Amino acid sequence: MRTKKLHIGVLGSGAGSNMQSVVDAVQVKKLNAEINIVISDVAGATILDRARTHNIPAHWLDCSAYRTKLDGEAERACIQLMNDHGVDTVVLAGFMRIVKRRLLDAFPNRVLNIHPALLPAFPGLYAWKQALDYGVKVAGCTVHFVDDGTDTGPIILQKTVPVLEGDTPETLHARIQEQEHLAYPEALRLISAGCLRVEGRRVIMNDSTPDASAR
Q1: d(Cα 41, Cα 99) in Å, to the nearest integer?
Q2: Is the pLDDT of residue 209 over 60?
């Protein structure tokens, strides 16, 4: 199956390991995509250094007018940067702000997030610790489209991780991250292949198998 090349803009606040997993998938031709720009709300974020290492345009965006959301002038500037760099798909990679309707309308059903829990269980911060404290036997991660809520958008795919005896929040989080690095490129491959459609809360997958090496 032929795939459509994705032009990705990444929003991140931290180390950028999920962005790196996308870069790696592109480099080994497992994903037909290009990261056109990386934007962070943290001036010294490692994700910006990772981007520069791969010659990806990296921008710090001053979002200090709001503590927990991307809104106002910063949101407008973000959309403008994305448009100027030809972005058609937005990937949230550890972005610690809530995105608002203007950005979602600019990229309808093309804003993705990854969450370190099996949604709808354990939304919000430190989801792996929430899961461990609750006593679940299975944890995992979720890739979903972003909507107006917090970790509430339609689910694209999920990957599971067993909770082991003696797990700490750190050990469980590390194993969940391993699955995140597989899940994000996989979800983007499905989008590139045109395999997905959204019907209400459900993401429907077509009966076709994406071939990322096809151009």
Answers
A1: 12
A2: no
pLDDT grade, residue 28 (50/70/90)?
very high
Largest separation between any pair of C-alpha atoms in the chain: 50
Confidence of residue 206 (pLDDT cuts 50, 70, 90): confident
How would residue 208 be classed by pLDDT, with cut points 50, 70 and 90?
low
Alpha-carbon span 179 to 173, nearest angstrom: 10
Q: HEC profile for the chain?
A: CCCCCEEEEEEECCCCHHHHHHHHHHHCCCCCEEEEEEEECCCCCHHHHHHHHCCCCEEECCCCCCCCEECHHHHHHHHHHHHHCCCCEEEECCCCCEECHHHHHHCCCCEEEEECCCCCCCCCCCHHHHHHHHCCCEEEEEEEECCCCCCCCCEEEEEEEECCCCCCHHHHHHHHHHHHHHHHHHHHHHHHCCCEEEECCEEEECCCCCCCCCC
Q: Among all residues, which ones are annotated catalytic?
A: 115
pLDDT tens by residue, 59-88: 999 999 999 999 999 999 999 999 999 999
